[in-house]
């Protein structure tokens, strides 16, 4: 009589793939990116933009477009966490308000699918990816080309908006302590130093079957 088969042990939680969605908010063009992290390995699933230039000046229509597209991406890629860049504090108050609404709508779409989010200052993202908080968009994109294998993108004109979103996702990955060369601060140290920066804590890891369904 054959011996009964023993069930295989569940994979260690740190070896399970994690999908991070990065978003660079915008009222005309919003960049987004999705990466899959497994241990030290990072794979770029996609990076692109939501282009709203053809939608005219109706801000409400643009916000709906952001919400709808975010839900489409979330339902397609099933991200575990959202990393989103905080609005840059400029001199134009009206632009800041519109940008804040766009960011809020993107966050609301994630929360509607019970996905936790973390907000990062632009200088924090640049520092994590390039080592300099004053890096340009071009320098960020160059560093990403050196660090990751990037799939092709259709239009060069939107490349920098997409790579900005990719840098936000990668920054979030680095802040978990998975790349000591990106900075000495661990995720726990970051929270201790910046208690007000985290707007929603991460929840329990989704079941592994979600990724294989």
Automatic annotation (TrEMBL):
EC number: 3.1.21.10
Active site per UniProt: 24, 85, 161
Cofactor: Mg(2+)
BP GO annotations: DNA recombination; DNA repair
Reactions that this protein is recorded to catalyse: Endonucleolytic cleavage at a junction such as a reciprocal single-stranded crossover between two homologous DNA duplexes (Holliday junction)
InterPro entries documented for this protein: RNaseH-like_sf (IPR012337), RNaseH_sf (IPR036397), X-over_junc_endoDNase_RuvC (IPR002176)
Single GO cellular component term: cytoplasm
Subcellular localization: Cytoplasm
List of residues binding Mg(2+) 1: 24, 161
Entry keyword set: Cytoplasm, DNA damage, DNA recombination, DNA repair, DNA-binding, Endonuclease, Hydrolase, Magnesium, Metal-binding, Nuclease
Single GO MF annotation: crossover junction DNA endonuclease activity
Main enzyme class: hydrolase
Keyword DNA damage applies: yes
Sequence positions that bind Mg(2+) 2: 85
Predominant subcellular localization, coarse grouping: cytoplasm
Record text on cofactor binding: Binds 2 Mg(2+) ion per subunit.
This protein's record includes keyword Protease: no
Job description of the protein: The RuvA-RuvB-RuvC complex processes Holliday junction (HJ) DNA during genetic recombination and DNA repair. Endonuclease that resolves HJ intermediates. Cleaves cruciform DNA by making single-stranded nicks across the HJ at symmetrical positions within the homologous arms, yielding a 5'-phosphate and a 3'-hydroxyl group; requires a central core of homology in the junction. The consensus cleavage sequence is 5'-(A/T)TT(C/G)-3'. Cleavage occurs on the 3'-side of the TT dinucleotide at the point of strand exchange.
Family under the similarity heading: Belongs to the RuvC family.
NCBIfam families, alphabetized: ruvC
Record text on subunit structure and interactions: Homodimer which binds Holliday junction (HJ) DNA. The HJ becomes 2-fold symmetrical on binding to RuvC with unstacked arms; it has a different conformation from HJ DNA in complex with RuvA. In the full resolvosome a probable DNA-RuvA(4)-RuvB(12)-RuvC(2) complex forms which resolves the HJ.
Protein name: Crossover junction endodeoxyribonuclease RuvC
Annotated organism of origin: Hymenobacter arizonensis (Siccationidurans arizonensis)
